[in-house]
Amino acid sequence: MPRPTDLTSYCSTSVAAKRLGLSPGTVQQMVENGTLEAWKTAGGHRRILTASVEAFLARSGGGTPQTEPHEKLRVLVAEDDEIMRKLYAHNFEAWRLPLDVKMVSNGVDAVLELGRNPPDVLIADLVMPLVDGFEMLRRVAGNPLLEETDLVVVSGMPDDEIEERGGLPEGVTRYGKPVPFSELRGYLQAKVVALHRLMRRRRRSAEEAGG
């Protein structure tokens, strides 16, 4: 990209990272991937178009609280391994639970999907391209629009390495690999029951309020 004429429309990697709530390394990967628009100075420093940062924030923060009734449990799976995504899909179909499942292959798509349609349950790997599971979970934990989203981590990463990376947010349910699908089924089944109870309470409250 040629040197822009209006440099005030651009910001440094560190400023963009702070604005997005991500690490500078992640922002650099997003530039390389084309998610953010930028150019490089003669010294090799990135200058990121501020408008592209704000556009990403708008796309990733446009969700609404989960107040509308829905009978199916919304599940978002963030997993970069295609075979694992197929395993999830196979098991979800076999269980015949009322699930509304969305699968994404990287952290950026997960962040965008979280903003567009907040799920009831997020199931995430920790090692993913672009935005990794650690940063994604920190974003979710710090977003009041996602406070009703239950977080599940499925990873083979050892405990000490997880702690070295800053640990997991409070309240995260963690499973190892290979995925214990029988346990995950029980977890999701309990969430379906809880969702249906919540929807019934909300309907009763609405009926009572309406007279």
**Main sheet, how many strands, which sense, barrel?**
5 strands, parallel
Helical proportion, percent range: 40-55%
The proportion of strand residues reads: 15-25%
C-alpha Rg (nearest Å): 20 Å
The CATH topology of the largest domain turns out to be Rossmann fold
Poorly predicted residue ranges: none
Q: Which H/E pattern describes the elements?
A: EHHEEHEHEHEHEHEH
The total beta strand count reads: 8
Whole-number average pLDDT? 86
Task: Provide the CATH top-level class of the largest domain.
Answer: Alpha Beta
The CATH architecture classification of the largest domain is 3-Layer(aba) Sandwich
Q: From the helix content, strand content and strand pairing, which structural class follows?
A: alpha/beta
Tally of separate helices: 8
The end-to-end span amounts to 63 Å
Relevant terms:
211 residues; 5-stranded parallel β-sheet; 8 helices
Description:
- It is a single chain.
- The mean pLDDT is about 85.
- The chain has two domains: about 55 residues, Multidrug-efflux Transporter Regulator, Chain: A, Domain 2, CATH 1.10.1660; about 130 residues, Rossmann fold (3-Layer(aba) Sandwich).
- By secondary structure, it is an alpha/beta fold.
- α1 packs across α2 and α5 runs parallel beside α6.
- The protein is built from eight helices and eight strands.
